[in-house]
Amino acid sequence: MHLARGVPKNLLTLTLLCALLTGCGGGGASATDQVDAVRASYSSLTAYTASAAITANCSGRVYSYEADFSGDLTSGVMTVTGPDNIAGCSVSWDETGTVLDWEQVTLDTGDLNGDGLSPVDAMPTLLTCTTTGLLLECSLEAEGAELYAEFENPENPACTALCWFDLTTHGLLRAELTSEGQTLVTMVFDSFLLESDPPSE
């Protein structure tokens, strides 16, 4: 069967116009809608638990370890689970600051970019970026099962957070913190469970 003359060209033009109008990293309006939904979940977050493998690039040295996380939007705890020589070390944070807790051992977290960003700052930074950071780019990936979003850190515009979210649970799958184009911290999550207040009527 042959299409009438001019129809394929018109369809192609319409498709291109739709792609240009939807924007946001090729994900279209649906990607931005999904970002809004994810942000709503994190803005109303009451508690979360997570487990991640972390890689930090600090002054040319690379550190890798695993950690469990728990907390809310204003406070939290990171407990190192590996490697064995630092397992059990925990770092807690709240609005008053950060506290390292482990007997006679200092966890070298480094000052990664001269602005105080270190791996122990990664989780609260990700939460801040997700809830209040400027959205720079977004798209749907993995055949629509994942959402990619890049946010500017409102507390440090030179820092950006690249995040991949599970669209079913809104939990983080992977995240990267960058400064001036350099990746400083990479987190790959084995799990990320969040509890949020239901939306107000």
In short:
This protein has 201 residues and is of the alpha+beta class.
SSE arrangement, N to C: HHEEEEEHEEEEE
Radius of gyration: 20 Å
Mean pLDDT: 80
Distance between the termini: 52 Å
Q: Mind describing the biggest β-sheet?
A: 10 strands, antiparallel
The helicity comes to: 10-25%
Give the helix tally. 3
User: Are there runs of 5+ residues with pLDDT below 50, and where?
Assistant: 1-29, 106-112
Features:
single chain, globular, 3 helices, 201 residues, alpha+beta
Model description:
The protein is built from three helices and ten strands; from the N terminus they run ααβββββαβββββ. Helices cover about 20% and strands about 45% of the residues. It has a ten-stranded antiparallel β-sheet with strand order 5-4-3-2-1-10-9-8-7-6, with helices on one face. The chain has helices spanning about 5-20, 30-45, 120-130; strands spanning about 45-60, 60-70, 75-80, 90-95, 95-100, 135-140, 145-150, 160-165, 170-180, 180-195. It is an alpha+beta fold and about 200 residues long. The longest helix is centred in the first third of the chain and has 16 residues, at about 5-20. Helix 2 packs across helix 3 (about 120-130).
